[in-house]
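Lines hold sequence, tokenised fold; shown next:
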Amino acid sequence: MNSKAMDEFEALLKESFEIDTPEEGTVVKGKVIAIEAGQAIIDVGYKMEGRIDLKEFANPGEAPNINVGDTVEVYLDRVENARGEAQISREKARREEAWDRLEKAYASETRVDGAIFGRVKGGFTVDLGGAVAFLPGSQVDVRPVRDAGPLMGMKQPFQILKMDRRRGNIVVSRRAILEESRAEQRAEVIGNLTEGQTIDGVVKNITEYGAFVDLGGVDGLLHVTDMAWRRVNHPSEILAIGETIKVQVIKINKDTHRISLGMKQLQSDPWDAVEKLYALGTVHKGRVTNITDYGAFVELEAGVEGLVHVSEMSWTKKNVHPGKIVSTSQEVEVMVLEIDSTKRRVSLGLKQTQRNPWEVFAETHPIGTNIEGEVKNITEFGLFVGLDNDIDGMVHLSDLSWDQRGEDAIANYRKGDTVTASVTEVDVEKERISLSIKALGEDTFTDAVDGVKRGGIITVVVTAIEEGGVEVEYNGAKSFIRRSDLSRERNDQRPERFSVGDKIDVRVTNIDPKTRRMGLSIKAREIAEEKEAVEQYGSSDSGASLGDILGAALKGDRS
């Protein structure tokens, strides 16, 4: 063989080696020539064979899918090992193949299929057909998953969130797929819904303000105020989780995809017949549903509630909390006072179902009737006396005694004393009853001044001497003559010139039934006598002295 032929042979041989002998660290195709002892024997060319455990040909949770004659891709680690065989790996081949495929999917943001096969700290491991990815716990589902058991080994789509081939890191999400499909499903369901439509739904969650209802892939909010026409304190009173209910679509927000639902809208509105059933002034039975500082709410029927304002609760208990008069769930009789259908309000009265106690008192106790009662309170202007039906009557200071000043007379009474008094006035509208204790005794003053007239002269008896004048008595009625009225002459205006028991003629200047006093004056009597004497016996201009005139007058009286 010449040198030229030799060179050609070497070149062909070299080319043959380059073709038939694959490079280590690459993926090559091989043919399964036998399966034995749990391994597949694979011919990778150039009379090289290698062995791979059958489990490397199986997906997680599945049996190996490999048969004699199959062509498979394997990773060539080494051309020859200690046993003279090629060292090959299906798993590494799958990983290389998977990374190429996954990088393309990541770049195009397309989904990839995989299966969760293990649990690690903070999440799970996912087999993406040869490459292992990390699935964080927060990316498993749209809501926290307590038991991921049913998801293990199940082939399903994932979204790649992040990948780094050099470090061998891949992070995937199942939640992103669910949210996307959920959004599509929501859009489809919402697109098929119309406001006013009636639909079946399943109660998914209950809160204080309402319930979330699944309408087949999309949730709607059923607010507590739209559950029933009557007052609902908490949705759990009428709903249970998992219950299928019929609801009406009230409103759909196309932007936020929020759906408002109602149940009461599928029932007849009881307010349509309120004015007909509950005429003004009629009395009905109801149940107390709620008590506030300003009154109590009473349910007349399911969906129709009225308010008994605190001012309409009792005739007599004015400044008492409604909770002291009625209790929740109590059955009461109420009167319809006002109806406002526009505002859906009914004003009710509790006290109107009982007779006005002041009216009853006026009917049963005419003016002049004597009553007996306990002193409930003592004030600066009189006594309050307890009467029947929790009402009070008042004895004014001026009605306590004929003889004493009111301020003095009230000191004789104590709270809790039982007193007898006469009814003097009943004002039903103002809820006021006037009583008099002094009316039960004799009016000594009126008797005493009977027949006495202003300007008349009467004889009184001195009962006390004081610095400012003298106290006198006439027929048992006391009066007081001031110092300035004791005489016409200033020198004689001295109280001490009188003694207790003296009888004095005085002129009546005033009679005051209210203060029960007579105005008396010696000075006025003297002036009147002088005037009368002058008129009878001469003029003061004639030169005669007053002594002469009075002397003549006295002489005339004696003759």
